[in-house]
Design a protein that fits this description.
The complex is a heterodimer of chains A (474) and B (353).
Chain A: H1 2-46, H2 52-55, E1 64-70, H3 77-85, E2 92-99, H4 105-113, E3 115-117, E4 132-138, E5 144-149, H5 154-164, E6 169-173, E7 178-179, H6 183-193, E8 198-207, E9 212-214, E10 217-220, H7 227-249, E11 260-264, H8 265-270, H9 281-295, E12 301-312, H10 318-338, H11 349-364, H12 366-383, H13 388-416, H14 423-457
Parallel strand pairs in A: 1-2, 1-6, 2-5, 8-12
Antiparallel strand pairs in A: 3-4, 4-5, 6-11, 7-12, 8-11, 9-10
Chain B: H1 2-30, H2 34-42, H3 48-55, H4 59-75, H5 78-90, H6 93-100, H7 106-118, H8 124-131, H9 137-150, H10 156-161, H11 171-181, H12 186-195, H13 199-212, H14 218-225, H15 234-247, H16 253-259, H17 265-278, H18 284-289, H19 296-307, H20 310-323, H21 328-341
Helix pairs in contact in B: 1-4, 3-5, 4-5, 6-7, 7-9, 8-9, 9-11, 11-13, 12-13, 12-14, 13-15, 14-15, 15-17, 16-17, 17-19, 19-20, 19-21, 20-21
The chains are: A alpha/beta (474), B mainly alpha (353).
Chain lengths: 474, 353
C-alpha cells in the first residue's frame, strides 16, 4: 500500500518537475529569441551602411585561410573549393586537408586544380597526431594547398591546417559547406571593428538540401522534398536564428560551428588548436577559448554574425541522422565533463554562471528529462495518478509553447532574411514544425540519450560516413 | 495557445504579402522611369529636362526610385554623375541630409552621410567631421569613409585623431580612407608614426604608408626601424619593415639588413620579406646566415627570400643546402616555390640546383 502511495507521489512529483522544466526551457528560448530578434533586426537595418560593398576594395582586409578537412568527399570537394575561391573576398588561401581518404577525393582535386607536389616545411605551431604524407599546391592557383595525411580525425586535420596556414585569420568549414559570396566579408567585420578584442566569429549554418546550386552558389532556396530533412531545416533555423544569436547578445556564445567559424590564428595556436580527443571539437574549442581568456584576465569577444551563411548538407536517412545526434550529444557531454570546473564558477563570469549551467541542464539533460517525463506521464495517466487536464497542460507547455517559438523563428526569418521565396516553402516549414513533435523529437531525444550513455561508458566514438548527395544544379 | 499560433501564422502571411505587394508597387513605379534613368546614365551631356523630371516626381515615385538614384550616383563619373547629383540637389536631398546629421535615429544619420558623400558640399565637411565622434559606430565609420571619398586633405588630422578616444573609428576604415587620399597623407602619417600616443595608430600609419607606396615615407619608416632600444616603437617596427618592402626603395636596405639581427623573430621575418621584395641582392650573405637560425620560421623565410633574389640567391641556397643537411628541407621548399613561380615561356627550364 505504502509502495503504491510512494509510486503515486513520485510520479506526480516528477510530472510537476517536467512541467516546470519545460516552462523554464521554453521561456529561456523565448528570452533568447527576443534578444536575437532585436539583434537580427538591428543588423539587417544597418547592413546597407556597414561597408561590405566597398569593404571588398579595402587593402587592409586581413588575409584568411579557409581550412577544409575532408574524408571521402569526392562527390562535393571540387565544388566546395571552387565556391571558396568564388567568394567576394580579395585575400583567400584554401587549405584542404585530406584525412586519409579511401575514395577519389585527392584524385578529383588533382585533376580539377592541376596540383603539383610541394616539399613544404610545416612548422608545428600546434601539435598533431597524424603524419603528413605529402603537400600539393595548385599549379596555376598557388593559393590552394592540399595536404594528404594519415587518418586521425577532423580535429587533428584542422590542426594540420592551422600549421600550414600563414594567414592571420583561419576559417574552418566543412567539405560539404558552401559559403554565401559575401560570407567572409560579413564575418570578418567584427575583427575590423574591434581588432584588439574579437578572437572568433561564427556565422549561420543553413541546410542546402533541395536548394538550387549553380557554380558553387546557392541560388534558389527551396524546402527539401523529404520530411526528415524539412524538419531539420526548421531545427537549424531555431538553433542559429534563436540560439546562437541570443547567446552572442549575452556575450556567452559557447558554440561556433565547425561548418563556419573564423578565428585568430595566433589565439588558436596559443590554446593548442583543436582537441583531437573530443568529438565536439568545435564547441570544445570555444569553451576552451573562453576559459583561457578569462583565466588570463583578457578582455575579449566571441561574436555571432547573423548575415553570413554557410550552406551544408543534412543527413537524409534516419541512420545517418541518428549517428549525427549521438555524436553531438556525446560531444556535449565530453565538453561538460572536461570543463566541469567552469560550471557555476563565478571566476568565469557569464560563461560559468549562465552558459555552462544552462547547457548542462537545458541541453545535455533535456532529452533525458523529455523521454523519462513522457514515460512518467503515460504511466501516470494509465494509473490514474496524472489527470488528463494536467497531461494536456504539459503537452501545451512542452509542444505548444515550442511550436509558438518555432513559428516566431519563421516570422523572424520572414521579416529579416526572407530566403524562402515561395509561400509554399513557408507553409511546409510550418507543417514540419507541427509534425516534428509527432515522433521526430522523441526519436532524436532517444538518440541523444544513447549518445550520453556512450559518453558515460567512455566508448570510442567513430564519426562514420555521411552519405553525400552533392550539390546538383536543378 | 492556438490563438497565439494563429496570430503568429497571420503575421507571417501578412509580412510576406506586404513584401510582395511592396516589391510589385515599387517595380510598377520604377518601370516608366527606366528609360529616363538609362538616358541620364548613358551620356556625358544629359538633357537638363531629365533632371527636372526626376526632381519633380511625386513622393511615392521618388521613394521608389531614390535607392536607384543613390546607387547610380556612386557608380557614375563625369557628366552623368553631375546630372544625378543635380537631381539630388534639386530634390532637396542635400539640404535634408544636412539637417538629418543630428537626427536621433542612427539610421537616418547614416542615410544622411550617404547623401553627403555622394554630393559633396562646402557645408558638409564640418558636419562629417563632427560625425567622426558620433555615438554610433556605423555612423562614425560612414563619416570617415565619406571624408575619404571627398578627398579633403584637411580631414586627415581629424581622421587620424579618430583612431583613439572613447568613440574610435575602426582602424581599417581610417586606413582605407588615408590610402585613398594617397600621397597627401604621407606627411601626417609619418608624424603619426613618430609621435602618436596610440600604438595601434602607429602600426596603422606604417601599414598605410606601405600601401600608398610613396618613397617620401621611407625616411620616416627608417627612423622607426632604427630605434631598437626605444620600446615605444617596437610594435610599429614590424609594420614599418613590411611597408619598406612594399615601397621597395633601395634606401631601406642597410637598415633592413641590420634588422635581421633583432631578437624578435616577427621583425626578422618582416625584414627578410622586405629585402626580398626590394630585390636586395646585397643581402644574400646576411640572409644565408639566417638559414641556420634557431627559429624554423626565420630559416624558412630566409630560404624563400634567397630564392627570389635571382641567380646569386639561388646559388647561395644550393651551396648551403648541399653542405648543411639541416637546411635542406627549407632549401628544397624555396626552390620548388621558385620553380612554380617562374613563367613557362622563354625562361630556363630548371630553377633548382
Amino acid at each position: 500500500m505504502w509502495a503504491a502511495e510512494l509510486a503515486r507521489a513520485v510520479l506526480t512529483g516528477f510530472s510537476w518537475f517536467v512541467l516546470v522544466y519545460f516552462v523554464l526551457i521554453n521561456s529561456s528560448y523565448m528570452v533568447l529569441m527576443v534578444l536575437a530578434g532585436f539583434d537580427i533586426t538591428r543588423q539587417q537595418r544597418r547592413a546597407p551602411y556597414q561597408g561590405q560593398v566597398d569593404g571588398y576594395a579595402n587593402p587592409l582586409l586581413p588575409r584568411v585561410a579557409v581550412l577544409i578537412p575532408a574524408f571521402n568527399e569526392e562527390v562535393c570537394i571540387v565544388e566546395a573549393v571552387e565556391a571558396m575561391f568564388a567568394m567576394r573576398y580579395p585575400w583567400v588561401d584554401v587549405v584542404v586537408i585530406d584525412d586519409g581518404s579511401t575514395d577519389a577525393t585527392f584524385a578529383v582535386l588533382q585533376r580539377a586544380f592541376d596540383l603539383v607536389e610541394m616539399p613544404l616545411v610545416i612548422i608545428e605551431d600546434v601539435a598533431v597526431l597524424g603524419a603528413v604524407t605529402s603537400v600539393h599546391v595548385g599549379a596555376t592557383n598557388r593559393n590552394l594547398s592540399v595536404v594528404r595525411k594519415e587518418n586521425s580525425g577532423r580535429a587533428d586535420s584542422l590542426n594540420v591546417g592551422i600549421n600550414v596556414a600563414s594567414a592571420p585569420l583561419v576559417c574552418t568549414v566543412d567539405a560539404d559547406s558552401l559559403l554565401d559570396p559575401d560570407a567572409l566579408l560579413h564575418v570578418v567585420q567584427p575583427f575590423l571593428t574591434d581588432p584588439d578584442r574579437v578572437i572568433a566569429t561564427g556565422g549561420v549554418v543553413r541546410l542546402v538540401n533541395g536548394a538550387e546550386v549553380v557554380a558553387g552558389r546557392v541560388h534558389n532556396v527551396i524546402m527539401p522534398k523529404q520530411w526528415l530533412t524539412r524538419i531539420q531545416v526548421v531545427e537549424y533555423l531555431r538553433a542559429f536564428l534563436l540560439g546562437r544569436a541570443g547567446w552572442s547578445k549575452l556575450g556567452s556564445l559557447l558554440v561556433v560551428s565547425g561548418a563556419f567559424g573564423l578565428f585568430r590564428r595566433d589565439v588558436l595556436v596559443s590554446v593548442g588548436g583543436m582537441d583531437a580527443s573530443t568529438i565536439g571539437e568545435d564547441a570544445e574549442l570555444v569553451v576552451r577559448l573562453h576559459r583561457r581568456m578569462r583565466e588570463e584576465g583578457r578582455d575579449y569577444r566571441i561574436v555571432f554574425v547573423t548575415e553570413p551563411v554557410s550552406w551544408t548538407e543534412a543527413p537524409e536517412t534516419a541512420k545517418v541522422l541518428a549517428r549525427q545526434r549521438r555524436r553531438w550529444s556525446r560531444g556535449l557531454a565530453e565538453i561538460m565533463w572536461k570543463h566541469r570546473s567552469l560550471i557555476g564558477n563565478p571566476r568565469y563570469g557569464r560563461i560559468g554562471l549562465l552558459a555552462m549551467p544552462y547547457y548542462l541542464i537545458f541541453e545535455l539533460l533535456a532529452p533525458l528529462v523529455e523521454l523519462v517525463g513522457l514515460i512518467a506521464v503515460v504511466i501516470g495517466l494509465a494509473l490514474g495518478v496524472v489527470d488528463v487536464s494536467f497531461a494536456v497542460i504539459l503537452a501545451m507547455v512542452a509542444f505548444g509553447y515550442a511550436l509558438v517559438l518555432s513559428l516566431l523563428v519563421v516570422l523572424i526569418e520572414e521579416l529579416s532574411f526572407h530566403r524562402y521565396h515561395r509561400l509554399r516553402d513557408v507553409g511546409i516549414a510550418v507543417i514540419a514544425m507541427l509534425i516534428e513533435n509527432l515522433g521526430y523529437r522523441q526519436l532524436t531525444a532517444w538518440w541523444r540519450v544513447q549518445g550520453l550513455w556512450a559518453a558515460a561508458r567512455g566508448r570510442t566514438q567513430v564519426w562514420g560516413e555521411m552519405t553525400r548527395s552533392g550539390f546538383h544544379p536543378k | 495557445m492556438v490563438a497565439i499560433m494563429g496570430l503568429v501564422a497571420l503575421s507571417i502571411a501578412s509580412a510576406r504579402t506586404w513584401r510582395v505587394c511592396h516589391r510589385r508597387r515599387t517595380a510598377a513605379l520604377i518601370r516608366p522611369l527606366r528609360p529616363v534613368l538609362i538616358e541620364l546614365a548613358g551620356g556625358d551631356e544629359p538633357d537638363p529636362s531629365l533632371v527636372r523630371l526626376l526632381a519633380g516626381l511625386r513622393p511615392a515615385s521618388w521613394r521608389a526610385i531614390r535607392p536607384v538614384i543613390l546607387d547610380l550616383c556612386a557608380k557614375l563619373t563625369d557628366g552623368s554623375a553631375e546630372a544625378v547629383r543635380a537631381v539630388l540637389v534639386e530634390r532637396g536631398e542635400v539640404r535634408q541630409a544636412l539637417q538629418n546629421v543630428t537626427h536621433r535615429s542612427a539610421r537616418v544619420r547614416a542615410q544622411a552621410v550617404t547623401v553627403l558623400e555622394l554630393v559633396p558640399q562646402p557645408d558638409s565637411r564640418q558636419a562629417l567631421l563632427e560625425l567622426l565622434g558620433d555615438e554610433d559606430i556605423d555612423v562614425r565609420r560612414m563619416a570617415a569613409r565619406a571624408l575619404g571619398t571627398i578627398g579633403d586633405e584637411t580631414a586627415i588630422p581629424p581622421l587620424i585623431a579618430a583612431l583613439a578616444g572613447r568613440r574610435p573609428v575602426p582602424a581599417s576604415t581610417v586606413g582605407h580612407c588615408l590610402i585613398r587620399l594617397g600621397p597627401i597623407a604621407v606627411e601626417p602619417l609619418v608624424l603619426t608614426l613618430r609621435i602618436h600616443l596610440s600604438v595601434s595608430a602607429r602600426v596603422l600609419a606604417a601599414q598605410v604608408l606601405g600601401h600608398i607606396g610613396d618613397p617620401a615615407a621611407v625616411p620616416g619608416l627608417l627612423a622607426v626601424l632604427d630605434r631598437p632600444l626605444d620600446l615605444r616603437y617596437w610594435p610599429a617596427r614590424v609594420a614599418a619593415a613590411r611597408a619598406l618592402g612594399e615601397i621597395g626603395s633601395p634606401a631601406g636596405v642597410p637598415i633592413l639588413i641590420e634588422g635581421l639581427g633583432a631578437p624578435d623573430p616577427a621583425l626578422i621575418i618582416a625584414c627578410i620579406e622586405a629585402l626580398a621584395e626590394t630585390g636586395a641582392v646585397g643581402a644574400v650573405a646576411d640572409l644565408s646566415l639566417l638559414l641556420h637560425h634557431r627559429e624554423p620560421s626565420v630559416a624558412k623565410a630566409a630560404a624563400n627570400a634567397l630564392s627570389r633574389l635571382g641567380a646569386d640567391g639561388r646559388l647561395e641556397l644550393c651551396t648551403v643546402g648541399a653542405t648543411t643537411p639541416e637546411t635542406a628541407p627549407f632549401v628544397a621548399e624555396a626552390l620548388a616555390r621558385a620553380e612554380l613561380s617562374r613563367p613557362r615561356v622563354g625562361t630556363p627550364a630548371h630553377v633548382g640546383c
